[in-house]
Amino acid sequence: MAIEVRIPTILRTYTDGAKAVEGSGDTLAELFTDLETRHPGILARIVDEANGEQLRRFVNVYLNDEDVRFLDGISTKLSDGDSVTILPAVAGGMA
Q1: Domain residues for 66?
Q2: Which Pfam family, an example, fits this chain (predicted)?
Q3: Phi then psi for 48, rounded to 5 degrees?
Q4: Residue 93 lies in a domain
Q5: Of 90, 88, 37, 56, whose CA–CA distance to 15 is shortest?
Q6: CA neighbours closer than 13 Å in the CB half-sphere of residue 7
Q7: How far apart are CA 78 and CA 55, in angstroms?
Q8: What is the dihedral of CA 93, 89, 47, 9, to 10 degrees?
Q9: Which residues in the chain land under pLDDT 50?
């Protein structure tokens, strides 16, 4: 099963500069574990192991343009050909 994962600029140091990589897994958790085997260090930037292995608070993940927090989070099921986008949350405003 091939799943395209779009990588934000801030995490491309783990993917040797690649904007997108392929991975596999039946769920997001399995996909991220698969990515870790080829891109060591990336998992800790996406998943907070100290918080029950949930997505980090300031990381947004989209499955085919739908926010996985409104699906099943890290347990969201994947299908062959899906596209996963990882985006760091951006905050700002006036002080």
Answers
A1: 3-88
A2: ThiS
A3: -95, 95
A4: no
A5: 37
A6: 21
A7: 16
A8: -120
A9: none
Residue 94 within a domain = no
Residue 95 lies in a domain: no
Q: Which residues pair with 86 in a beta bridge?
A: 61
Please state the pTM of the whole predicted model. 0.88
**Tens digit of pLDDT for each residue in 51-76?**
777 888 889 999 999 999 999 999 99
pLDDT recorded at residue 57? 85
| pLDDT recorded at residue 94 | 62
- Cα dihedral: 69, 47, 15, 62 (round 10): 0
As for how many domains the chain has, the answer is 1
Task: Provide the CATH number for the domain around residue 33.
Answer: 3.10.20.30
Q: What is the pLDDT of residue 71?
A: 93
